[in-house]
Design goal:
The structure holds 2 protein chains of 2 kinds. Chain A contains 19 helices and 23 strands. By secondary structure, chain A is α+β, with helices and mostly antiparallel strands. In chain A, a hairpin with a 3-residue loop joins β20 (about 590-600) and β21. By secondary structure, chain B is α/β, with parallel strands linked by helices. The chains are: A alpha+beta, B alpha/beta. The interface of A and B includes residues 475, 633 and 637 of A.
């Protein structure tokens, strides 16, 4: 069993041996390196000691044997493993393997190296064993004739092969030292550069030896004493957030497992409590197979990150501002127009364009005053100029604009846009439609006007009523005084005068009541009144008066016009105006009364024109429609008629105007809004 | 106390014409009263007196609201006439319109008195008038 097992083992053990041999050889990294004197010297010594023409230092690679030293067989630098004598020699690491005559040896007589060049006959090989006990190859001597070796020669060969192992170790150590020296040089160079670039520190961690090195700059950055000696955990103390530390750990793990260099930014808090941003670059260096040093840079990028954050913040702010201004500009209640120093439009918002039915594109470059009411253009230019002259001022103005010839009232604020030096570059105008407001204001103003006028009239009315009542009362007082101071015989005279006074007072109060009833009764009945027919009916009622005056009445009415009116009021108006014309006729001229009824867009006009005495309106106009004011030498004038006429017209929602010239005639014109 | 010889009373109201004349006579301070119904009539009489070089009235009682020619127009006429402008005028009116009182003050030798006229008022007017003449 043991035997058969042993028979099977060689191939297996060879295989295993092969694996560890390749690993060891790769550690020395010696295959295919140039010839080296030290190896040649040992080979020469071996050939001299054994008195052979050929000596080799062979190393067994996966598929070949390679000669590190070669004495007497320089034609070859390597051979295949199949023909290798050495692969047999290493099977027993402790012994020198000897073939005295290969030509008669059953293992080698057919070997190509035996049957052909270089015609090996004698072979003796001492295995080269690594310090770990792995055979790497052999030191062998070869001859072209059969030989034997003395014990001394064999021992010498073994000693020399041991020297080869030491030589290999030495070479490897030298090489590592060189790599390390190079790395030190590189590192010094790296730190030098880092130093020049500012606050970049360097660090180095050797996991194997658990040593950590920080440059002074790292200590400066982290504000620790220069005497501080860091360990593997030191960094962690400074990471202020779990995320930063986790990022560092993950990157480090990546680097350790896959050799992936990292470049990260983490936030730290220094020993003195100052927050900082640090950029850490980490890499590794394999200074022995599978043995690494970790190193990298450590840079204070606080300013950079702060700046970058500010930039991001500012970009975000700007984008917010842009959205904000966009919203402002796209609003649907304010007009926004920007004009250059020449008054040409450089910007208008869509609302403005839409509102004034402007072609957005065509307006740019045009003068901005195009759609302004001609009377307001100068105001607008004046305000624009004022803004440019006093850039800190805001000018407010109201201008009328035209949309399809319809007036739109707009209210604007003008403000100069200035550059960084404070020089005006444009005028920003913001406005809105105030048409409704202006209309309301006008309505309010007209209400105020009407009220003011009514107040004046009311005051005059009070004075007049008071005057008239006082007149009668004064008379009564005078009469009673006279009664008191006179003999009884005279009393009858006074008594009849007193009665007369009382009846006058009663009449005055009656008039006042009449007037008040017109002005307070706003719920009187309205009905359709055909103006021409009704006028003719009223006139026919006073036909006798007209006939006596010798007056002629003309009617001028092209179409039948009907309005909603109060019949009694309208009759009173017509009666008053016509009798006035008769009363104040010019005795020198036959009286002609012209009554015209017409209609324009939204008003009905009713006018009564005569060729009578007329009046000087400059003198009496303001009191014409007052109460108890008379302007004629005519004794019938009571001064109440026009006052009541005006009250009637206004109660019907109309207006009355007068034009007159002495000795030419008078025309009264009534206007009724058709709506009413 | 001096008596006033001759005054004008200008008022369209018959009751005023009657009662004021009677009061003036009763006061015993006025010898004679000439009565007119409006400014025009009074003005015509003044012109007539002037052209006959007769005595002009020493005082005129004047109503404001009258037909044909009202008190204001009459005042303007006599005040622009040098011979008549020195005649003192007492406006007798029932008006409470402050404008009327202010307007009256614009004319020389013109006083505004609210109706009705009392005997004591006549006394003081005559007293003032005679002292100014003396």
């Amino acid at each position: 069993m043991k035997k058969s097992l042993k028979l099977n083992v060689p191939s297996l053990s060879l295989l295993n041996q092969g694996e560890s041999r390749f690993k060891e050889l790769s550690r020395y990294d010696i295959l295919d390196t140039p010839r080296e004197q030290e190896f040649d010297d040992i080979a020469t010594l071996a050939s001299q000691i054994c008195d052979t023409p050929i000596s080799l230092v062979t190393l067994l690679a996966k598929d070949r044997q390679w000669f590190k030293a070669n004495i007497g067989l320089t034609k070859w630098s390597e051979t295949s493993l199949e023909v290798s004598f050495c692969k047999h020699a290493i099977e027993n690491p402790e012994q020198v393997y000897i073939v005295s005559d290969a030509r008669t040896d059953k293992r080698f007589y057919q070997n190509d190296l035996v049957t052909n060049e270089p015609h090996i006959v004698f072979y003796a090989g001492a295995p080269i064993i690594s310090p770990e006990g792995v055979p790497l190859g052999s030191l062998c001597v070869i001859d072209h004739k059969p030989r034997e070796l003395s014990d001394i020669q064999i021992k010498s060969l073994r000693l020399l092969s041991k020297q080869l192992t030491k030589l290999l170790e030495l070479k490897l150590a030298l090489k590592q030292e060189r790599i390390f020296r190079d790395w030190e040089t590189d590192k010094a160079h790296f730190y030098e550069q880092a130093k020049r670039q500012g606050k970049i520190g360097g660090w180095e961690i050797d996991i194997e030896s658990s040593t950590v090195y920080w440059t002074s700059i790292i200590k400066e950055i982290l504000e620790v004493d220069q005497s501080f000696s860091p360990d593997i955990e030191s960094f962690r103390k400074f990471f202020c957030s779990g995320a930063g530390y986790n990022n560092f750990l993950k990157s480090s793990a990546d680097l350790m497992a896959h050799g992936r260099m990292y470049d990260i930014e983490v936030e730290v808090v220094t020993a003195k409590g100052n927050p900082k941003w640090i950029r850490i670059i980490g890499d590794r260096m394999e200074y022995q197979p599978n043995v690494f040093k970790y190193f990298g840079s450590f840079q204070d990028v606080t300013d950079h990150v702060t700046l970058r954050n500010k930039l991001i913040e500012s970009e975000r702010y700007q984008s917010e501002q842009a959205t904000f201004y966009k919203t402002l500009v796209e609003n649907q209640s304010f007009f926004i127009v920007i004009t250059d120093l020449q008054g040409n439009t450089t910007f208008l918002n869509q609302y403005y364009a839409d509102f004034f039915e402007l072609d957005h594109e065509k307006e740019i470059g045009q003068t901005s005053t195009l759609n302004i009411h001609p009377d307001d253009i100068f105001l607008c230019i004046e305000a624009g100029t004022k803004c440019l002259n006093e850039p800190s001022q805001i000018c407010f103005l109201n201008i009328r604009k035209l949309v399809n010839e319809i007036i739109v009232h707009t209210s604007w604020s003008f403000k100069a846009v200035v550059d960084q030096e404070g020089k005006p570059t444009a005028v920003l105008s913001i406005g809105h439609d105030v048409t409704i407001l202006v209309d309301k204001q006008e309505m309010l103003q007209s209400l105020v006007d009407v009220t003011a006028e009514q107040n004046i009239r009311l005051r005059n009315f009070t004075y007049i009523v008071s005057h008239n009542i006082r007149s009668h009362v004064a008379n009564m007082l005078s009469l009673t005084t006279l009664i008191d101071t006179s003999p009884k015989d005279d009393s009858n005279d006074y008594y009849s005068l007193l009665k007369h006074s009382i009846s006058n007072l009663e009449e005055t109060i009656h008039h006042v009541n009449n007037i008040l009833s017109i002005q307070t009764n706003t719920n009187f009945k309205k009905e359709k009144v055909n103006l021409l027919a009704e006028t003719k009916r009223v006139v026919s009622g006073i036909s006798e008066l007209i006939k006596q005056a010798g007056a002629n009445i003309e009617y001028d009415s092209k179409v039948a016009i009907t309005i909603d009116s109060n019949l009694a009021y309208f009759d009173s108006i017509v009666l008053n105006l016509v009798t006035n014309a008769v009363k104040y006729r010019n005795p020198e001229v036959p009286l002609l009364i012209n009554i015209e009824i017409s209609k324009n867009e939204n008003q009905v006009l009713f006018s009564v024109r005569d060729n009578g005495l007329g009046m000087d309106l400059k003198k009496t106009g303001h009191k014409l429609f007052g109460m108890y004011k008379t302007f004629h030498k005519n004794k019938d004038a009571k001064g109440l008629g026009l006052f009541i006429t005006k009250a009637h017209v206004e109660a019907l929602g109309g207006t009355i105007e007068v034009a007159s010239e002495p000795l030419v005639g008078t025309i009264f014109t009534l206007k009724f809004n058709e709506k009413d | 106390m001096k008596k006033i010889d001759f005054v004008f009373l200008v008022d369209d109201d018959a009751i005023v014409q009657f009662s004021v004349r009677r009061l003036l006579e009763k006061s015993g301070k006025v010898n004679s009263v000439a009565v007119f119904s409006n400014g025009e009539e009074a003005l015509m009489e003044l012109n007539h007196l002037q052209s006959n070089k007769a005595n002009l009235p020493e005082l005129i009682f004047l109503d404001l609201n009258m037909p044909v020619m009202d008190g204001w127009e009459f005042l303007e006429n006599i005040k622009s006439n040098s011979a008549c402008s020195k005649i003192p005028v007492v406006i007798l009116s029932s008006s409470i319109d402050p404008e009327d009182k202010q307007k009256a003050n614009l004319f020389d030798l013109t006083t505004f008195i609210g109706k009705p006229l009392s005997i004591s008022q006549i006394d003081s007017i005559v007293l003032e008038l005679s002292s100014s003449i003396e």
